[in-house]
Amino acid sequence: AKRLDWARKHLEKALNDDFKDVIWTDETTVQLEAHRRFACRKVGQPAKLKPRPKHPVKVHVWAGISWRGATHVVTFEGKMNACGYTSILDSALLPFLHNKYPLHHRLMQDNDPKHTSRLAQTFFDENGVNWWHTP
User: Which of 100, 96, 58 is nearest to 80 (CA)?
Assistant: First the structure.
């Protein structure tokens, strides 16, 4: 209900907003499988499926896009926490903001706990990052 109320409150403004000052960011995990599921077989023999790997290769990435371009894509290992998140913002987001949005911007991110943590809030405040808060 909070998101719906927020959307209704901002609907009229959104219709007139070109979103040219918004940087949309998120992180995701891409799982790589470097093998085929099917093996070669003789004519007339049933296909044998290869098992999926127990520990498939995974790549974790963070990036942002905006009207004025994209941030660098950052890869990271393991599970991201608030400390790792602010480190990525420091190395990838801040240079992008200074270069592409020196006057005004809005940062759009989801409400993942690491994004809304006290550490992240302090980082935003200390570095002048204008987080566009949504419920």
Answer: 58
What is the C-alpha to C-alpha distance for residues 131 and 91, in angstroms, rounded to an integer? 17
Q: Read off the tokens for 14.
A: 């959104």
CB within 8 A of 116, min separation 6: which ones? none
pLDDT tens readout for residues 13-29: 777 788 899 999 999 99
Higher pLDDT, 38 or 89: 89
Q: Where are the alpha helices (DSSP H) in 16-103?
A: 82-88, 94-100
Distance, in Å, from the CA atom of 26 to the CA atom of 91, rounded to the nearest integer, reads 15
pTM for the model: 0.77
